């Protein structure tokens, strides 16, 4: 067992925003956290990494390979981030530094985990960019985030998260702002990379249609609580909670009306 979350509670200003969430993710598993905006899925992921916003507190238990993460000193948690657990945040435009080239940002992610010089780090940045299928990687890494499309920025964020070869990758709504074609390419890339390297995946989304392409098992959240936990095939065929039923209706509408998907940049 890699990740075990038991009775996780997150409070902000005395209000419970995550309330008793439990789930487990095994090595190599593709797992989903799904719910509408405000359901607590992103805060759950941030609690795993010890990256909750200021003023938020976590209680319960989060264990990684049997080691308790809640209460672990940030110095020790920092060693887990990237090396063991990587994360792709929701909006790469804000996650990337606008005044540094994307190559430098990928190289910095590499140098956090390996003691290598700048020249070698640049070569690794090119290799990582190529690995996530960024076209013309050698020239592209000298560009700034605003010069890239949405799909390209998402690939840069993925390259940075994978630089430390983590065993678990957490992705928070990684395809929300992308059009249908680019969304499919990013999903296929995620599946290919996780399969190739045997990584577990926690995929966070509000879209059951997207989740069905990536995950095999999922937890459905509403107002910080688990309302359903089942194989994704069951959520699609016989959802038991009103929340999941509503997500299924939305997914069906999306599948029948692909032009309604949000616009995004070219890959």
Automatic annotation (TrEMBL):
Residues 3-248 form the ABC transporter domain. It is a peripheral membrane protein. Keywords: ATP-binding, Cell membrane, Membrane, Nucleotide-binding, Transport. It is found in: Cell membrane. SMART domains: AAA. Transmembrane segments: none annotated. PANTHER family: DIPEPTIDE TRANSPORT ATP-BINDING PROTEIN DPPD, OLIGOPEPTIDE TRANSPORT ATP-BINDING PROTEIN APPD. This is ABC transporter domain-containing protein. It comes from Microbacterium suwonense.
């Amino acid at each position: 067992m890699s990740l075990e979350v038991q009775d996780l509670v997150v409070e902000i200003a005395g209000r419970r925003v995550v309330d008793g969430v439990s789930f487990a993710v095994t090595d190599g598993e593709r797992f989903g956290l799904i719910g509408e905006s405000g359901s607590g899925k992103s805060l759950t992921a941030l609690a795993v990494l010890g990256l909750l916003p200021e003023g938020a507190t976590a209680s319960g238990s989060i264990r990684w390979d049997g080691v308790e993460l809640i209460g672990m000193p940030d110095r020790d948690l920092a060693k887990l981030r990237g090396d063991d657990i990587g994360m792709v945040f929701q909006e790469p435009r804000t996650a990337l530094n606008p005044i540094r080239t994307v190559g430098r940002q990928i190289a910095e992610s590499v140098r956090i985990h390996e003691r290598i010089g700048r020249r070698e780090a640049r070569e690794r940045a090119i290799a990582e960019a190529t690995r996530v299928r960024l076209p013309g990687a050698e020239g592209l890494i000298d560009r700034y985030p605003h010069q890239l499309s949405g799909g390209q920025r998402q690939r840069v964020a993925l390259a940075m998260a994978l630089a430390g070869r983590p065993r678990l990758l957490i992705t928070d709504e990684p395809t929300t702002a992308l059009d249908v074609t680019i969304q499919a390419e990013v999903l296929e890339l995620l599946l290919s990379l996780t399969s190739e390297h045997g990584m577990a995946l926690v995929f966070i989304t509000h879209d059951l249609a997207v989740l069905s392409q990536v995950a095999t098992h999922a937890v459905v959240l509403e107002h910080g609580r688990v309302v359903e936990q089942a194989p994704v095939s069951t959520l699609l065929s016989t959802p038991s909670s009103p929340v999941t039923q509503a997500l299924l209706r939305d997914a069906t509408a999306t599948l029948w009306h692909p032009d309604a998907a949000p616009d995004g940049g070219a890959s």
